[in-house]
Amino acid sequence: MSNANQKVSDTQAEVPFSQDETKITEASKPACIEEMMRLVTAHPDMVIGRNFFRVHSTLAESAWTRHFGTFQEFKRQANVTPSRHAAQLEKNVAKHASADSYRRLNEERRGWEGHYQSPDRSRFQTHAIITDTHDIMMDPFVKRVWIETLARAQPQRIVYGGDAFDLPEFGKYAVDPREWDVVGRIKAVHELFDATRKAAPNAQVDLIEGNHEHRLLRHLAEASPAMRAILADLHGFTVAHLLGLTAYEVNYIARADLHGFWQKDISHEIKKNYLVVDDTYIVHHFPDGMNMGLPGVHGHHHKHIVWPKFHASRGPYEWHQLGAGHRRQASYCAGEKWQNGFMLAHIDTQERHVAFEYVDLTYAHACVAGIWYSRLSSEMVG
Asked: Rounded to whole angstroms, how far apart are CA atoms 265 and 229?
């Protein structure tokens, strides 16, 4: 016998039931299950797949398909894999177990909604609202005018309406890990809050959880690789430390459940984060707030739009979508179509009436309460 023929013979000997003519074509259901269990016992470290069974078993495919239909059902009947009911139960257990870390963080972050109250009993008040400042991507002209306006107006309340953080490291935009600056971005928000506190030390400051903050805290709960980078640089921190709540006395409005199994569940949860101010107006991160029966503002879309609305008992009112604090030069979006700006809400707490004063900061010049501002050469971005 030649060496080539010898090799073929050896191979055939290693796979004793690989030829169809040696297979059993008729077998009872118990006999099929017995053959499956024989292979499972003989190969405890192997995953018994269809091709492995075809090669190593004594049965032809027709022997077991007539009883079980699919190979997966064959394995279920032999108790090699869980039954459909057991498999669904395992999935349900896994689904709820995956939420354990989120539930712990839910309780921690929900304790900060009304933690720092600065009640002001004056009838006429001015509140300042800005959304979508996006950490290091905040437009420097917007930042300067915003902080100087706070210092001049001394508002009783300051509201950051969501997405004070950006952190594209955690987002859908593919950021090169070599360019990650997660800690730098978090510190940029802390610097903004520090400037806010120095400009208006007596104001109540609120931060509404937007989709970017929600995403950040989900990564914190999961201890993702990017979050582990933060843990290495920020020692002994909590949610309050991470977001700057304790250092700058910021209330955090976060009613959403961090656990959302599907993206639509997550979107639904985030929409629960909004602020009703003195039963007079609403600050929401999403446009869903405009149908809640009160005047108000929302962010998220980075473009200023005004809608006239009407309530049967309160009469006509306005709802504003705000321009962003994010610079319009964004390589990953059509940022040139965005607008910049923030809102001053002048309220009569007795009559529960609000007069909105929108400040447009899209271009090189802006006017706030009669004071003109011009974009400096150092603030020319893009």
From this structure: 28
Is 182 or 201 the better-scoring residue by pLDDT? 201
Report yes or no: 126 and 271 within 8 Å, Cβ to Cβ.
no
Q: Which two tokens stand for residue 115?
A: 């933690």
Structure tokens at 149: 């306006």
Residue 275, amino acid: L
CB count within 10 Å of CB 26 equals 10
Give the Cα separation of 31 and 314 in Å (integer).
Answer: 78
Checking phi first, is residue 148 left (phi over 0); if not, alpha (psi -120 to 50) or beta?
Answer: alpha
The pair of structure tokens assigned to 353 is: 């009436």
Among 151, 65, 74, 133, residue whose Cα is nearest residue 338: 133
Is the Cβ–Cβ distance between 300 and 162 less than 8 Å?
yes
Cα 16 to Cα 55, 156, 227, distances in angstroms:
8, 85, 53
Strands 296-298 and 281-284: parallel
Reported pTM: 0.75
Q: In this predicted model, what pLDDT tens digit does every residue of 276-305 receive, in sequence order?
A: 999 999 999 999 999 999 999 999 999 999
Q: Whose structure tokens read 């005047």?
A: 295
pLDDT at 262: 75
The structural domains of the chain, with segments of one domain joined by +, span 3-81, 123-379
Cβ distance 168 to 119 under 8 Å?
no
Write down the H helix ranges in 43-83. Answer: 50-56, 61-68, 71-77
Q: Supply the pLDDT for residue 89.
A: 77
A 10 A CB-CB count for 204 gives 21
Lowest-pLDDT range of 16-25, 248-257, 311-320, 329-338: 16-25
- Of 202, 242, 220, whose CA–CA distance to 116 is shortest? 202
Query: Is 3.40.50.300 the CATH number for 123-379?
Result: no
Pairwise CA distance, residues 141 & 381, whole Å: 9
Alpha carbon distance 351, 205 (integer Å): 23
Whether residue 14 has pLDDT greater than 50:
no
Element (H, E) at 353: strand 353-360
